[in-house]
Amino acid sequence: MELELMGAVEVAQKIRDGLISSEDLVRACLAQIDRLEKQVGAWTFIDPDLAVQQAKDADSAIQRGLRLGPLHGVPVGIKDIIDTKDMPTEDGTVLHKGRRPQDDATVVSKLREAGAVIMGKTVTTELAVFSPGKTKNPHDLTRTPGGSSSGSAAAVAAGMIPLALGTQTNGSVIRPASFCGVYGYKPTFGLVSRHLVLQQSRPLDQVGVYARSIEDVALVAESIIGYDSLDPDTRLQAKPELLLTQAQPPPLDPFLAFVKSPVWNQAEEDTKTAFSELVSALGECAESCDLHELIDDVHDLHRIVMEADLARSFEREYVDGKKQLSDILREMIERGQTVTAVDYNNSITRMKEFYHLFDKLFEEHDAIITPATTGEAPVGLGSTGSPAFCTIWTYFGMPAIALPLLQGEQGMPIGVQLVGPRGDDARLLRTARWLVNTMAGL
Predict the structure, then answer these.
(1) Catalytic annotation, residues
(2) DSSP run (H or E) holding 301
(3) Nearest C-alpha neighbor of 393 from the set 246, 128, 208, 216
(4) pLDDT tens digits for 173-206?
């Protein structure tokens, strides 16, 4: 197999064993970028010389017998709202054009500590909201890759890099993973620091990862998870053993709760059919659970929090550059400016009350199974598609993973979303691997 298409776990081991060099891997990825970038448009900044020099330094460390991290010599793409001290971070807006951060975001520092090669900055939508960037879907260039982590998902799907970081405030990790046919994982809220990541909404913002397998997802996620005193929503606690746990067979076949959610009517017919067949194929390992009445107003609560926080977070951009903002972002900010303190605080209080809503469900079920998106990636590049099937789980801060297991009528990917209880990320990945293996055997 070509180097650029190998998994991260595999290439990391080969680099440690001296079977391949980081420089060879990085040059293979750069060649793939050179072949496809004009069509896909996944990158907003890439410096081949800088990438190769990082790889040479990684190879030199091996030759000198230095201690190696789990991602030693492996290239990773960074969404362009995550600060990097040696590269621009422009947040997908002309208002931040030429911005050069002084420091790395905590997640970037952790990647460097793990030995990763920071390959470059991937395209994001405008201020990581809805207005699309230049990226196209690698499977069909007439279709959206999703957003806001457009470039990260597309770059992994196109074989340009094995790993990438994204963020999610609504559906920005899970939706692009589904549309581009890769694995996208959003950890439990508070597991990953957001220090020096563009803030939209402190109660909702979460950092996630992209890869082409569950073990690769686990490898990179485990490297960035951890307490950070500079992010008050992280906690000092033992790190979940994602890579080890996901590889273990579950003691019993998992039992999944199929949840349609209040937006089932937005699902396309091929999505409804595919999930009906999937749940039927799982037989006694899945059952339908109707939570409609319990979570019917969550989309409204999420919107109140998100739009009010957008108005606060992007106040300077609105005041100084209102005319240079997209219509959709300007309208969201203006709606957010009208949210009352009572409504905002109620939405935050309800969020905390909901934390225990699923306790009973997860006593009986290992995970929730639900669509990642309404269907295949929509044709056209003027929109990034609907995040409706992600909103609820983002609001609750639950871990979620998109699995590229289904196809629509046009042959495009449709992701299966698994959602677990807060803090039980390792078991969620183990259940996800079981599902992937089970589907492969059907």
Answers:
(1) 79, 148, 172
(2) helix 298-313
(3) 208
(4) 999 999 999 999 999 999 999 999 999 999 999 9
The helix or strand, by DSSP H or E, that contains position 359, with its residue range, turns out to be helix 359-364
Confidence class of residue 293 from pLDDT cuts 50, 70 and 90? confident
> Residue 201 — φ and ψ, nearest 5°?
-150, 115
Look at strands 400-407 and 163-168 and give their pairing.
unpaired
Start-to-end CA span in the chain (Å) = 26
* Alpha-carbon span 161 to 146, nearest angstrom: 18
pLDDT, tens only, 234-285: 999 999 999 999 999 999 999 999 999 999 999 999 999 999 999 999 999 9
Delimit the domains of the chain by residue range.
3-246
Is pLDDT above 90 for 291? Answer: no
Coil, helix or strand at residue 268: coil
Give the containing element (helix H, strand E) for 78: strand 75-79
Helix H or strand E segment including 15: helix 8-16
Phi first, then psi: what are they for 44, rounded to 5°? Answer: -105, -20
CA nearest 428: which of 250, 189, 207?
A: 250
Own/partner contacts of 85-89, CB < 8 Å, gap of 24 or more, are 86/50, 86/118, 87/45, 87/47, 87/50, 87/118, 87/120, 87/121, 88/44, 88/45, 88/121, 89/121
Architecture of domain 3-246: Alpha-Beta Complex (3.90)
